[in-house]
Amino acid sequence: MAEKTQNQQPENDNKPQSDNSPVEHDIKENLKNFSGAEYEQIENRIQELEKEWDVERSLGLNAAILAITGTILGISVDKRWFAVPIAVAAFTGQYAIQGWNPLFPLFRKFGFRTSREIDQEKYALKALRGDFKRIGQSHNKAWKAVSS
């Protein structure tokens, strides 16, 4: 694995923020809203979460679209457009090595969550639903089960 230099972003910049982050707050509020809800209501929310695009998937699609568009424009309009797929490749490589992409904060502002954050809510809902009997109906216990 590559060693970090002083100029590199910390690896955890793309990880869910700990205690009291806006995303964590939203998840906890969702859990409170579903605490005591009917099985079918919780199942519907879990199905929504299964379809939710995480930030990594969205960044990947964005990279593909920009690379294809830049290549087509480079061929048909002006060779300077080839800078776009080159930049996309550099950002993608940086994300693979460091876990950071310059567009990550922008996608977060648009409301995209990490796959871990989506999974946290999904498994906490499964706990509320009773899939993990020993946790019971407590939204706090459900959150603790998935946040450690």
Question: Describe it for me?
Answer:
The chain has 148 residues and is mainly alpha-helical. Helix content is 64%, strand content 0%. The protein has helices at residues 22-34, 39-51, 55-76, 83-98, 104-109, 115-129, 139-147. Helix 1 (22-34) packs across helix 7 and helix 3 packs antiparallel against helix 4 (83-98). The longest helix is centred in the middle third of the chain and has 22 residues, at 55-76. The protein is elongated, with a radius of gyration of 20 Å.
How is this fold's topology laid out?
Elements (H helix, E strand, L loop, with lengths): L21 H13 L4 H13 L3 H22 L6 H16 L5 H6 L5 H15 L9 H9 L1
Helix pairs in contact: 1-6, 1-7, 2-6, 3-4, 6-7
Key terms:
148 residues; mainly alpha; elongated; disordered N terminus
Order of helices and strands: HHHHHHH
Coarse structural class: mainly alpha
User: What's the main sheet like?
Assistant: none
Terminal Cα span? 25 Å
Provide the β-strand percentage band.
Answer: under 5%
The number of helices is 7
Ranges where pLDDT stays below 50 over 5 or more residues in a row are 1-17
Write down the overall geometry: elongated
- Count of DSSP strands: 0
Mean pLDDT: 84
Helix content: 55-70%
